[in-house]
Amino acid sequence: MTKKNPWYDASKPHHTPDGFRNVEPGERGVGDYKKWQNERKRLGLPKPPQAGYTAFIERWWQPADFSGTDDTIWWLGHACLLIRVEGRYILIDPALGPRASPLPFFGPTRKTPAPVSIANLPPISGVIYSHNHYDHLDKGSLKRLLKRSPALQVMAPLGMGRWLKKRGVRSVTECDWWDNLDFRGVRIHCVPARHWSMRSYGDRNRSLWCGWVVETKTWRFYFSGDSGYSPTLAEIGKRLGPFDVAALPIGAYAPEWFMGDSHMSPAGAVKLYQQLDCPQVIPIHWGVFELADEALDEPLLELQQALSAAGIVEHHFHPMKIGAKIAL
User: Fold this and answer.
1) What angle do CA 262, 267, 271 make, to 5 degrees?
2) Best CA proximity match to 212, nearest among 117, 114, 91
3) Distance between CA 173 and CA 201 in Å, rounded?
4) Helix 298-309 vs helix 266-275: crossing angle, to nearest 10
5) Most buried in the list 55, 119, 171, 281, measured by CB within 10 Å?
6) Which domains does the chain have, with CATH numbers?
7) 235, 266, 212: which is closest to 83 by C-alpha?
8) What is the pLDDT of residues 95-131, one digit of tens each?
9) What is the DSSP letter of 142?
10) Contact at 8 Å (CB) between 319 and 303?
11) Nearest to 279 by CA among 217, 239, 237, 307
């Protein structure tokens, strides 16, 4: 029996009777996944970083330092960020385990260490998820967070609540695109993204995917989530900007003919950066998991080329070390 979408609203183009969809048409065709897998196997992709994994880690990793009291954002690797706002901590897409996989012995392994363990994080008040893929929603990380904070409050897009509650989350707020909520005096907005969802066989696009905007009285932060580039993302800046800081993805884009529907290339991130009126950018979604064909350090090279191609010399698009922080 076909499962119906309990949130279905025919007036919303990203809703379907059975789930959700992107508003842009996709370019992938039947057989493209197999074609990509055969191609990367034939070419031996992805390659190691230019100077090797050890040198890459030494250059782009540091242990996280949570000292201080000011409002701050830490990049904890891949798409995981930690925000300190008025002394409280909000964790985004915590995937700090050894693999981005449902299985402990198969799937993408973490190539760079997590800069902090769950046990050594500051006390977490809330968790935000962008979607249910394993490199963003890690069951082991969630389990350890709940062990520390059984009353943890979680915010997620539509359709993720049931899964989260079955894993022990007591308080879940599910949001649609353009919904917003108050979290202890902080306004949090759920915003569109171009991606997809799937946790297990048969649940493809049953739950929604999104980005988030965190808004306080003094600053605004945009987290794109996992998203391909789309001109429609500029609407987020028009409605909720200007942003002081934005976290934009630059990895898992190769080959673009296959990945472009759901993952932003560095060139796409630069284009969106310009459309958002050039906020300070934390490049994310690179340097940890080999999810596509590019090497771990390739997004950085592509980013510089994309900035040069766009004629941008002075910019606020500076890669951070995994574990590093910026003040808000």
Assistant:
1) 95
2) 91
3) 25
4) 50
5) 281
6) 54-327 (3.60.15.10)
7) 212
8) 999 999 999 889 999 999 999 999 999 999 999 999 9
9) H
10) yes
11) 237
